[in-house]
Amino acid sequence: MGAKDHSEQAQKDVPPARCAVFTVSDTKTPQTDVSGKLAYEILVKFGHSVVDHRVIRNDRKALAEVLQEAQKAGVDLTLAIGGTGISKKDVSVEAVRSLIDKELPGFGEMFRSLSAKEIGVSAILSRSVLGTTEEGHLIAALPGSPDAVRLALEEILMNELKHLLWELRKHA
Predict the structure, then answer these.
(1) Which of 36, 64, 165, 166 is most buried, most CB within 10 Å of its CB?
(2) At what angle do helices 3-12 and 158-169 cross, to 10 degrees?
């Protein structure tokens, strides 16, 4: 068995991820949170569980605290949806980056590349980010539109999630 075959077999043995979905918004409610519900549905469709799902106000400190709580609770993947724009109130990327030990810049690069095919040069406004924490968890900030959530999850992250988790755990 070659190294690639061994890696693929090991990834098959990775259990489904425990996920948390936090929509960052000052206007959305659990009833109007279309993007958070979509993320929940996609994660479940791909066989993962969502153990926490709620709307968090657009406050960097409050968001960082909630993200840290999820990590301490043993969540494998934490998503902050929304608050990734360039206005003064958009603080999700900063909150997520404060917890990242190793950033995976390819995620943001790929997201913007694929997004540009859909929305054109407006993709430069996207500040999506993915990284790992020191404790070996994945954490991401995604733009808040349903199309962005679908693209980030279905086109990128769901295709690599088990591989990412396997890599994080193989020397843990």
Answers:
(1) 36
(2) 100
Which residues, in sequence order, are bridge partners of residue 130? 140
Nearest to 138 by CA among 48, 81, 76: 76
**Three-state DSSP class for residue 69:** helix
Going by their DSSP bridges, the two strands 77-81 and 138-142 should be labelled as: parallel
What are the residues facing 5 on neighbouring strands? none
- The predicted model scores a pTM of 0.92
Q: What is the pLDDT of residues 105-143, one digit of tens each?
A: 999 999 999 999 999 999 888 899 999 999 999 999 999
Bridge partners of 23, per DSSP, are: 55, 81
The answer to whether the beta carbons of residues 23 and 81 sit under 8 Å apart is yes
The number of angstroms, rounded, from the C-alpha of 56 to the middle of its chain's C-alpha atoms is 15
Q: Give the per-residue pLDDT at 13.
A: 82
SS3 130: strand
The answer to whether the CB of 83 falls within 8 A of the CB of 141 is: yes
3-state secondary structure of 86: coil
Residues with Cβ within 8 Å of 24's Cβ and at least 6 positions away in sequence, in order, are 55, 56, 57, 58, 63, 80, 81, 82, 83, 91, 92, 144
Residue whose tokens read 């066989």: 47
Domains and their CATH numbers in the chain = 17-169 (3.40.980.10)
Quote the DSSP letter at residue 152.
I
